[in-house]
Amino acid sequence: MVIIGLTGGIASGKSTVSAELRKMGVPVFDADAEARSAVNKGSEGLALVVQAFGSEYLTAAGELDRAKVSELVFHDKQALKTLENIIHKIVWQRAESFLENCRASKQQAAVLDVPLLIETGWHKQVDCVWLVAVSRCQQIERAMLRSGMTEEEVTARIEAQMPLAEKKQYADVLLDNSGSLEQTIAAVHKELAKLLGDGSGR
Q1: Whole-angstrom Cα distance, residue 135 to residue 59?
Q2: What angle do CA 51, 76, 48 make, to 5 degrees?
């Protein structure tokens, strides 16, 4: 089984690529979704976050106050490291279970969709890295449209991530998502067929 590590910066179109891979029958592990559920109400992850930062980071309903935590970690690198250590450990355990299930069901390929694939070192656990990329201008434009953030807010998030030029050094496949949706989808089909060597796109 081939393990694809899929990554890309904010608003690069990574979710478009992962959705297409799912349509093609390739199982996809969504690290973002798993990271969110890792700190759901009543979870072990949430208990560890409260232990690290205090109960003031909970809402009145006993859930994680995500806005308050985001504000904290955005300005405090040590707090960010602490939070990432808690969440990444849980998410990686889930990723390993996902891959075990894929192997057991005799999948040809499986995808780990991880925004911080390279930063976490998880790229060492995959067979190939697929990087989805757009120009910085498109990234800012799309992120503003999608999230309602200001240009300054989007730029700050881009600056906080590993630069695209650096990420490219780790990429086995660069998916240029600056063109049309059809072009991106065609590239996904072509690269998967190439990787599996059967020409069928699966």
Answers
A1: 38
A2: 15
Positive or negative torsion for Cα 62, 156, 180, 185: negative
pLDDT given for residue 17 in this prediction: 95
pTM of the entire predicted model = 0.86
Task: Specify the residue for token string 């955005």.
Answer: 74
The model's pLDDT over 61-100, given as tens digits with 9 standing for 90+, comes to: 999 999 999 889 888 889 999 999 999 999 999 999 999 9
22: Cβ contacts below 8 Å, ≥ 6 apart = 28
Give the least confident one: 3-12, 22-31, 133-142, 169-178. Answer: 133-142
Q: How far apart are CA 27 and CA 29, in angstroms?
A: 7
User: How crowded is the C-beta side of 26, counted as CA atoms within 13 Å?
Assistant: 30
Closest CA to 28 of 3, 56, 11: 3
